[in-house]
Amino acid sequence: MRSVGVEEELLLVDGRTGEPRALSAAVLAAASRDPQGNEEVFESELQRQQLEFATKPQTDMRDLEEEIRRWRAEAARHAEGVDASVAALATSPLEVSPTIGNDERHQWLKEHFGLTAQEQLTCGCHVHVSVDSDDEGVAVLDRIRPWLPALLAMSANSPFWQGEDSGYASYRNRVWGRWPSAGPVEVFGSADRYHEQVADMVASGALKDEGMVYFDARLSRSYPTVEIRVADVCLDPSTTALIATLIRGLVDTAAREWRDGVPPTRHGVALLRLASWRAARSGLEDQLIHPVTMRPAPAEAVVRALFDHVRDALEENGDLLGAQDALAGLLATGNGARVQRTLLHRTGSLQEVVAECVRRTLA
């Protein structure tokens, strides 16, 4: 059974006002003093208003969800020590002036990318799934491409930007797409071709290194995994676990197709970009672009098509019933974007939206 690991980026906010706070260094320092020795779980990100954690690889999705809940709670505990809170929000609902970190890498990004880097206060969720080789990994990347927008729609959790409704379910996706290497990619066909393209991108001088190859899905530089990077950080940890479960199912399904000689779908990058835009715009509230036909279809029909596509893998991994329940719950209550807009409609206050999302982060 393939192992799965999750990286989540969390927003650091003032517990009273809901405004983002540039306190990542203080929170990391608090974690480093913790006698439980969990400081290596947490890392800084581009902006000092962010904190990232990474789970261990897990094969049981219940254990994965439990660990996500644990590290969210630990992040909240460390943040509380410096008079802050954590929120699983993919963008700040309130106005913010992001503060880029002072390390060499982040300052390089600031210098070379200007406003794109300065405004890039977005929180994503990255899912790593183990693969046996780069050849298998690239075969998986080639075959999961059209299904990634559905995952974005399910995870969408960033409707607000600088105190305004963006009109999108995932505005994080639109802001993240400003990086020149971000988004969907072509069919590579082989690991050699993948590595050749990555090398050419770095050699262009536009990117600092391979870490800046921000494909929606890529081979990990550090682990024997494929890394799917398309999702917003999810408000509810059960949604994160569902996304990770479906991604493992996608990887299993794609690897089986590769072994059976089933070729990848040849949808062009232009169509995939449109599908990603549609998913970011609509979330689960309207139509999406169907991964097979590339034509409009109701969001629930597209999500269920994804579920049916990976059903055999879910069953083999023992994930079918749990994923069915989690999906039913998501479709009933909505993604984070729907929850945030409902909270604003009910309270009339973005501060109250943030306060409730702080509570739901630790649900």
Automatic annotation (TrEMBL):
<keyword id="KW-0436">Ligase</keyword>
<dbReference type="Pfam" id="PF04107">
    <property type="entry name" value="GCS2"/>
</dbReference>
<dbReference type="InterPro" id="IPR014746">
    <property type="entry name" value="Gln_synth/guanido_kin_cat_dom"/>
</dbReference>
<dbReference type="GO" id="GO:0004357">
    <property type="term" value="F:glutamate-cysteine ligase activity"/>
</dbReference>
<comment type="similarity">
    <text>Belongs to the glutamate--cysteine ligase type 2 family. YbdK subfamily.</text>
</comment>
<keyword id="KW-0547">Nucleotide-binding</keyword>
<comment type="function">
    <text>ATP-dependent carboxylate-amine ligase which exhibits weak glutamate--cysteine ligase activity.</text>
</comment>
<dbReference type="GO" id="GO:0005524">
    <property type="term" value="F:ATP binding"/>
</dbReference>
<keyword id="KW-0067">ATP-binding</keyword>
<dbReference type="InterPro" id="IPR006336">
    <property type="entry name" value="GCS2"/>
</dbReference>
<dbReference type="GO" id="GO:0042398">
    <property type="term" value="P:modified amino acid biosynthetic process"/>
</dbReference>
<protein>
    <recommendedName>
        <fullName>Putative glutamate--cysteine ligase 2</fullName>
        <ecNumber>6.3.2.2</ecNumber>
    </recommendedName>
</protein>
<dbReference type="InterPro" id="IPR050141">
    <property type="entry name" value="GCL_type2/YbdK_subfam"/>
</dbReference>
<dbReference type="InterPro" id="IPR011793">
    <property type="entry name" value="YbdK"/>
</dbReference>
